[in-house]
Amino acid sequence: MTTNASAAIQADNLSRVVPLGERQLTILDDVSVTVTEGETLAIIGASGSGKTTLLGLLAGLDRPNSGSVSWHGDVVSTLSEDALAKRRQGAVGFVFQSFQLLPALTALENVMLPLELAGARDAQSRAADWLKRVGLGDRMDHLPKQLSGGEQQRVAIARAFVASPKIVFADEPTGNLDTDTGAEIVELMFTLNREQGTTLVLVTHDPELAARCGHVVRLARGKVVQ
Amino acid sequence: MNLIFRFVRRELRSTEARILVLALALAVASVGAVAMFADRVKGAFVNQANVLLGADVMISGDRPLPENFTAQAVSLGLKVTQSTRFGSMVSAPSKDTPLGKDSALTDVKAVNAPYPLRGSIEVRNAAGDRVPFKADVKPGEVFVDERLASRLNVKVGDTIELGKNTPRISLVFAEEPEVAGNFLSASPKVLMANADVASSELLGPGSRATYRLQVAGNKSQEFAELVKAKLGPGQRMETVRELRPEVRSTLEKSEQFLGLAASFAVFLAVVAIVLALRRYLKRELDTATLFRTLGAGQRQTLMHFVGQFFVLAIIACLLGVVLAYAAQAALAWLVRGLFASDLPPAGWIPLVKAFATGLVLLLGFAIPPLVALSATPPVRALRRDMPSVGSGGVFASILGAVAVLAVVMMQSQDISTGAIFVGGLVALVAAATIVAMVLLWLIRTLVRSGKLSRVGGRQSWVYGLANLDRRRLSTALQIACLGLGVMTLITVGFVRTDLFAAWQKSVPADAPNRFLINVQQEQVAVLQPLLPKSSDGKAAEFFPMVRGRLIAVNDKPVTAKDYPDERAKRLVDREFNLSATAKMPPANKVVAGDYFDDKARDVMSLEDGIAKTLGLNLGDTVTFDVAGDKITVRITSLRKVDWDSFRVNFFALVPEATLAPLPKSYITAFHLPKRDNKTLASVVNVAPNVLAIDVSEIMERVRSIVDQVARALEFVFAFTLVAGLLTLYTAVIATQDERRYDTALIRTLGGTKSQIRAALIAEFSALGGAAGLLGVAGSMLLTWVLATRLLKIDFVASPAVWLIGFFAATACTLLAGWMGTRSVLTTPPIQVLREG
């Protein structure tokens, strides 16, 4: 297995098969991807082409049936679930289509969460800074249900960047938002990514968003076609 | 740790967490309040029963008791009195006898003032009623009872001979409170001052006397515990339970009824906790997924959730304990005036138990799903459609059942109650699953066949039923939980009404309250017409009786020394009453062997409890010494005796032929109205040797305990009922989220309010009906088991209660479900959909 130390993410020959009744359904078939540090990568394709599965594997949320994933030269796809969780702590950030904010927590508390789990002492001030950076300095004590969709996604972005991760993964970050709000969110994400020098991997249906990325992988029926 | 506390504070903002805390607090409150109130009621009626003992605790010994017992009681601030009890002949001058005086064997009690500590001496007023009378017997005087006064033909102011003394009679009393003790050996009573014992020279070395210390006060129980460990040989603690089997049986049943109420509260608590927990855990799944995605390991996630639950449980249990205290105080206030004395103060143990109950139940049911929760794969963050984690499977069920068993046993302190309840729970869950599956299969088949939509052409209620099928697991759980709640409530209703009435009836108003003993064979025919007939028109029945001392078992001689058990020692020391009947008396049940028939000779049927105490088994032979004659009989059956019946009951029964050659007397029992003095007067007239024993006092005590417990239970059960309805309401609304979302979606898709209404009504009716059916079936079984196994009451249930139960369950589920979901019809769908 070759690993490229300068690559932020290197995935070689990834396959993912799930049982479907008595049959085996191949979702990803021999996919290899390399993302260099600071690069932006868009994964595109039709529904059911395996985009989200690939993102899950690259992000270490799921494990491949064959092939390997490494981050900055370290193979992570063979790590145990808990070791992988430890690696994710502070190293990667996530933005989800459905925001995934905890409803009982305020905006500020939602952003504090990754820092609190890592045991950081200055969680509150850092989270407050980040909420200000995403333009929600005056909404810190609001609960998710009191925020609009765009605002909720801003909170999610602040949460993704707050622990200064090296890589941020985004799963259809504008999927649940209207066009204008979506454009604002994209702008914010790319600006922060540039400022922080993060590697950004995103899944999208939106050709405009894909066009803004430095690198695009198109999937069809579980295979890379471009 | 800080994160846990921060999270608890944050979590408490959510409805799910608040409902969980409230459900648990309510559960703890009802368990605690019922147990605490039951304890206080129990304290009150035990105090009342203790009146029969004349004190709260009595220690007796064959020799004078050590001073430190008294000192101990005094140091606890208890009232103390010492007395000595012994048998003695008493004489008075008589013109009718050749010796010029008449004598009687009496039961003498030499007492110190104050006496008695509980209850009071009663005298007869001009109208013939018994009224309390307060007086202390002074040196040089005696109090004698009516029986002795009439026997010796003496009155107040006369003197009698008592040992070397000739005290003056200063009072003729009807009864003194201490009526406990073996009444068959009871002789007329004399009360004298302890100070006169020495000068009377009645008690020399080797005299058979019982030295007693009686105490009363709040800390009596504490005293009893302290002294119990220090009792030496020949010393014993007497309680009213040991002395009177019918009182023991009444107290035990009262305690069982109260214990049942507490167990029901636990059951309702289980329902509330399981449903609230389920809803809360569902929400926590998202939190767990996010934790895992953000880099928390499985262990960290588990520790966090367990910690969080623990803190939530502590908060809820503390809240519950406060509510419990307030609720039991309110119950006590409601029953004020019902008991002769104030309810004893509430102890803190029931509160500790209620607290532990909440904690054990919540953690017992939560830990297995939490373990499963902490293993949530992080990829669920991307794929919400992934199957949610299991509930912990078999492990969860076992731990849950163990938790329930633990708390029911903690509440009832009785393994058989615990076993009945947990067995019922397991059977109910199994039955619920089957009922749910059958119901769903029926719905599925009907929906698929399209037949339903043709019935009335209403598609919407078919949709409502199909909803139940769609949430199969959730439906089964809801049916089980609601069914459990319904079962509990119906059973509470039964226990409150039918079972209790059955028990009250077991001490009928015309139960025998007078016994005649020492009747000679030729007097039976003379006395029988004088005595009132029983309620079914039968003449009073006379049973032969011989008194014999147990001298050998399986041909091996025995003495009191051979038995370590105090009760066994006393049994061997005293004389047994042997009787004979051709047929087994009513209120007796053979539990081993066969009752002998007419032709049998030299066999015996023995009461089960006494056989156990003496270590006797079926097939053993026992030898009795009856006034110098020896009879040897083989035990061929063991009986359980229903002491509540107040009939003439015997520990040992033999065939009539076995008793025939032996010198015997007869005994009978009958009911006399309170004011009837003539009957006994005419009995004494024709048979002066006969001794009449009045047990009406004991019966009145027992009946008043039963009545008071009945009224206190009314309140307890009403409280349980209200708590139960609240719990069921919480249970139904705890499952509303999915329905709210679905309903909003249907409205978005153009469903009208009336269509949604029809769907919801169909869904809740089916749910309520299934739960009602299950609850009714469960309560039938549970009530039967409780009646026959635990309370041992003859019981025929009225079908009306079940019918009402079924319809009430359906209606209540429908109402609660409707009230919980109704708001969705007026809320804009978009709001519901956005809240997810």
Overall description:
The complex is a heterodimer of chains A (226) and B (836). In chain A, 33% of the residues lie in helices and 28% in strands. Chain A has helices spanning 51-58, 81-88, 107-117, 123-133, 149-161, 179-196, 207-211, and strands at residues 7-20, 23-36, 40-45, 66-71, 74-75, 92-95, 167-171, 199-203, 215-220, 223-224. The longest helix of chain A has 18 residues, at 179-196. Chain A is globular. The model of chain A has no long low-confidence stretch (mean pLDDT 88). Helices cover 54% and strands 16% of the residues of chain B. With 836 residues, chain B is of the alpha+beta class. In chain B, a hairpin with a 7-residue loop joins strand 2 and strand 3 (101-111). In chain B, the strands form three sheets. In chain B, strands 1, 2, 3, 6, 7, 8, 9, 10 and 11 form a nine-stranded mixed sheet that branches. Chain B has a six-stranded mixed beta barrel with strand order 13-15-20-17-19-18.
Give the structural class of chain A: alpha/beta
Q: Which band does the percent of strand residues of chain B land in?
A: 15-25%
Number of domains of chain B: 3
Q: Which chains share the greatest interface?
A: A-B, 32 and 31 residues
What share of the residues of chain B lie within helices? 40-55%
Q: Report the end-to-end length of chain B measured between terminal Cα atoms.
A: 31 Å
Could you spell the SSE succession of chain A in H and E letters? Answer: EEEHEEHEHHHEHEHEE
**What is the approximate shape of chain A?**
globular
The strand count of chain B comes to: 22
Given the helix and strand composition of chain B, which structural class is it? alpha+beta
Rg of chain A, nearest Å:
17 Å
Number of helices of chain A: 7
Query: Separation of termini of chain A?
Result: 23 Å
The proportion of residues forming helix of chain A, as a percent range, comes to 25-40%
Q: Profile the largest sheet of chain A.
A: 6 strands, mixed
Low-confidence stretches of chain A: none
Rg of chain B, Cα atoms, Å: 34 Å
How confident overall, as mean pLDDT of chain A?
Answer: 88
Low-confidence stretches of chain B: none
Mean pLDDT score of chain B: 78
